[in-house]
What does this fold into?
Amino acid sequence: MALVLNDRVRETSTTSGTGTLDLAGAVTGWETFVAGIATGNTTYYAIHEEGTANWEVGTGTVTDATPDTLSRTAITSSNSDNLVNFGGGTLNVFCTLPASKTTDMTMTTAGDILYASANNTPARLGKGAANEVLAMNAGATAPEWVAATTGDITAVTAGTGLSGGGTSGDVTVNIDTTAVTAASYTNTDLTVNAQGQITAASSGSAGASSGFAVAMAIAL
It folds into this structure.
């Protein structure tokens, strides 16, 4: 069942020992655990034995019975965080939120990440190193920081008019050479292929247009 918290849930008990509590009913102005949490659900509880220094904070499961009961699993206590052996005096039992379960107490360093290590169980993942990335661990049970990895190419194919390429690592693609010699050309005749490459080039002869020749003759 679910973890449930609720306000103003408080009962008394006179159960002794370290076992499940028999609940004796709600304190005036408060609700019973069955009413506020519901049978079968778990909750966080605090217990104090009146007139003593005995106390316990933990998780427990509520059961609707005669009498109603609350099981006990200690989180922290006056008995070195173990179950307390209560002496049979009056116990005040109420719903609470342990400080260790709050995000303020879980997140202790700037850059920490909060995640659930189990149902309703907050846990802290400390910040990673520079340039690390977040990933799931091998068992897919919790996040972890890992070094970033880079991918690789699968294929670079040189197209028409190109050479080179490859299937991994660094590759180079070159423009195919043509029969054209690197030089300066004047009055150039060019041949260009479909890829925009100049495949032939030659210098032409300078010549006057017929209009220009007629103009020169008149001037003379």
